[in-house]
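Reading a protein record of the kind used here takes only a little practice. The integers have meaning only within a learned vocabulary of local backbone shapes. With that in mind, consider the following protein and its fold in token form:
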Amino acid sequence: MSVSPYTNWSSKVSDCDVLVAALGSGSVVTVDMGGYVRQWETGLDTLQRSLMEWRNMIGSENGRPIQITIQRDSGLDVSAPKHGKIDPSNAPHVGGNQWAGGTGGRDTAGLGGKGGPYRLDAGHKVYQISQAEKDAVPEEVRRAAREMAEKAFKERLKEIDMSEYDASTYERFSNAVRRQVQSLRIILDSLQAKGKERQWLKNQPMGELDDAKIIDGLTGEKTIYKRRGELDPELGSPQQKPKRLRVLADVSGSMYRFNGVDGRLERSMEAVCMVMEALESYEHKFKYDIVGHSGDGYDIELVSADKMPKNDKQRLKVLKTMHAHSQFCMSGDYTLEATDASIKQLAQEEADEHFVVVLSDANLERYGIRPERFSQVLTSDPQVNAFAIFIGSLGDQAER
């Protein structure tokens, strides 16, 4: 877009405000007097497909409301963090400091406010106070809120440990990825060994004398030596060591905060569920672990490589822990540190191949993390195949 000071004048003297041209494949392109180029989908098939994608992304399916965020300034001071009163009718509360699950307020558990102990989404429109207001919260109030959040998180983990297996909750995540799990297991079945093996390389021009080549040496042959070296495995040869995989799951506060907007936390939980189900009984081929990263740190253990979940109850516990951590953790971002530490750690382990997959909601710009820096970390060790997958995005954050 390029807005010229002559735009108003030229729009008055020109014959038309917009030029239109066909672009093929069910779309047209327009250019207006301000130099703004827009591409429009016009074909019925493409419009229907885009509408379905939009509905899946926003989550208006299954009766879930679309969440709207409205910026507001409260102009009021915080006092002390508290959970707040529970409204039995779940009516929306905006800007106060009495009710739990309110938005744009202070002191209580909710969304979009300041000084509260932790996040709590009651499913209403979010009224968001400015970052400047949030930054102005006194240090003693932050500390008290942090202590309250840690206590609530520990209590929530105890509940998760003691709770009965909830089949319907697990099925909701498992059913969403059933097809992908089946596809992934077919791929895992056909995986080839990639690790290079150290063995004797024969017919070399230098190295140790090969006893079997002494006669050839007498006849003038030069390549009569052997030396130790790495050789690619033959096609179809069995793996000597398992492949090593680490999934870095984003369990930061923004995952919970914006889950109502695009379902990013639930999609991340589905992705983790897919990994756990697909890799079950493939321990001989894959050794994996799942580590969380958030404002609390870069090495939050969710699944240990030595203790992978064996059944649906153990897998559900991992998913519930992800959700709880995202609700109660501090704001902040350790994506770079988590990626860097994981690549370094995996590079030191013996494995057929090494993989690090980073899940993130692309909320990096807020913390001054440049794409170039992230790229440097992802490609820091040629031994480790590192990938980033952005689940959820505000505007075009992920694309950029």
